[in-house]
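Cross-check.
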Amino acid sequence: MHPTTCLVAWLLSLVAVQGLQGSLLAAAFLVPPLFGRLALQRAIRLAWGARWLFLSLFVILAWGRAGEPVWGGAMAPSAEGLSEALTQVGRLLLVLMAVAVLRQRLSVPEFLTAAHRLLWPLRRCGVDTDRGIVRVLLVLQYLETTPRPRDWRRLLDVPEVSSSEVFELRDRHFPGRDYLIIGLLLVSVVLLYGHAQA
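Predicted model, tokenized:
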């Protein structure tokens, strides 16, 4: 499968996640472990790094929406807010898992190839896509290689940047079957949203 097809599938999975709720959302958590232990470990690290974001999102949604209280008392969250909080936290967790799977499945040269081909039409509008792609890669690399400091002020230090690092772009032939795969994925996302709206 061409790296561009993997990237498109990943982007469509992010769109599809936003339409999941209830039992479909719960069933979606069975998919990421199928991509291997390393991808799952990377996803756990990303989720742990975003734990305060998860907690904040849960509290704001669960206690910030009016509705029937889950239990008696002034500090009880509403049932509607609790349901929305679990849904949004679940979706965000799936997005982080998808990021981990993408980073595990695509090497840096493959990601460059996929993003370069996918963003090629923007070059006609004067957008420097190559510079943007390299910056995204540098951010991802920095987030994964930077040790977590005990002192938060160390995060403000300017990281050392190596000027000798080279990013290699290897373009590959885009096979016809990948057009079929992308088409099937698009249809699947449309059907999923149609089912969610019904």
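The two ends are 33 Å apart (CA to CA). Residues 3-180 form one domain. Passed to J.P. for a second look.
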